[in-house]
């Protein structure tokens, strides 16, 4: 049974992908006994998908996980590792007004956000409106799902060809509605204004890892996300990796992401 005293990490995966794509990262995270790891599957990523499944359904999955984790220990520290579409899901899941799943015990205190090549977007925007992907790269199916025409190049560029082919076989349909649904909460703003419990300055709770060779969410778009939230006064630490959108079969990329997690742990300890 997971220890209530350890920090918890929730990995929120991206669209068209399942936890299988993240296995090398998850395996590396699991080897560290400093925290407990949670890897929920988002409902919009299924083959076939339900045509009514959207962002709120995915956020409800994460919201439930947050409530369960905090039920025993409301002060338990939590890190959200959010990739791609998962950035919108994680933000929405933290909305205090999110309906149907109840409040998160302990509220938003001691929750830390790590976006990697993820949508860090303002309220009223959807993933589709925050970055309009060229339509020729996606096929809209009759069942309401979207599927990339060339997922190997879109997600797995930079990996060896044989590895890329293996990863492409793990791709699933993603409900188009989830990309169109707007975010109603800015978790990065609530957690990233650099305030401590008594309002003191300098508290770091938001990280963004830019994937520089990303073909799905280009580097320029990722940096625009960071610049936009910084203009709002948000304290965010930015770092970069020269990798594609889903580089989790790259040992160097996994090690670099683990280093970011270690940095978050150090910040948590400093704020304890």
Notes on the structure:
With 272 residues, this protein is of the alpha/beta class. The chain has a single domain (8-271), classed as Alpha/Beta hydrolase fold, catalytic domain (Rossmann fold, 3-Layer(aba) Sandwich), CATH 3.40.50.1820. The protein is 36% helix and 15% strand. The chain contains ten helices and nine strands. It has helices at residues 23-30, 55-72, 86-93, 127-130, 151-156, 161-168, 176-180, 187-192, 219-231, 251-271, and strands at residues 8-12, 36-38, 78-83, 111-116, 138-140, 145-148, 174-175, 206-211, 236-241. The strands form two sheets. A six-stranded parallel sheet has the order 2-1-3-4-8-9, with helices on both faces. The chain has a three-stranded antiparallel sheet with strand order 5-6-7. β3, α3 and β4 form a beta-alpha-beta unit. α1 (23-30) packs across α10 and α2 (55-72) packs across α3 (86-93). The chain is globular.
Write the layout of secondary structure elements.
Layout: E1 8-12, H1 23-30, E2 36-38, H2 55-72, E3 78-83, H3 86-93, E4 111-116, H4 127-130, E5 138-140, E6 145-148, H5 151-156, H6 161-168, E7 174-175, H7 176-180, H8 187-192, E8 206-211, H9 219-231, E9 236-241, H10 251-271
């Amino acid at each position: 049974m997971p220890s209530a005293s350890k920090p918890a990490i929730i990995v929120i995966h991206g669209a068209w992908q399942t936890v299988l794509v993240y296995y090398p990262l998850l395996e590396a995270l699991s080897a560290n006994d400093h925290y407990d790891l949670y890897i929920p599957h988002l409902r919009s990523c299924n083959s076939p998908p339900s045509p009514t499944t959207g962002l709120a359904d995915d956020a409800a999955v994460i919201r439930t996980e947050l409530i369960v984790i905090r039920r025993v220990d409301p002060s338990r520290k939590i890190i959200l590792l959010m990739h791609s579409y998962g950035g919108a899901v994680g933000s929405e899941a933290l909305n205090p007004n999110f309906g149907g799943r109840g409040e998160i015990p302990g509220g938003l205190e001691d929750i830390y956000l790590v976006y990697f090549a993820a949508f860090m977007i303002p309220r009223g925007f959807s993933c589709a409106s925050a970055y309009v992907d060229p339509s020729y790269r996606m096929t809209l199916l009759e069942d309401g799902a979207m599927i990339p025409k060339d997922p190997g190049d879109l997600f797995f560029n930079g990996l060896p060809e044989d590895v890329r082919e293996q990863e492409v076989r793990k791709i699933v349909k993603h409900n188009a509605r989830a990309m169109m649904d707007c975010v109603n909460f800015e978790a990065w703003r609530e957690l990233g204004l650099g305030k401590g419990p008594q309002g003191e300055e300098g508290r770091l709770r938001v990280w963004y890892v830019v994937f520089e060779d990303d073909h799905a969410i280009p580097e320029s778009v990722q940096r625009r996300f960071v610049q936009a939230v910084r203009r709002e006064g948000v304290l965010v630490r930015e770092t970069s990796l020269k990798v594609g959108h889903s580089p989790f079969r790259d040992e160097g990329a996994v090690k670099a992401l683990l280093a970011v997690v270690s940095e978050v742990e150090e910040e948590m300890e400093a704020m304890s």
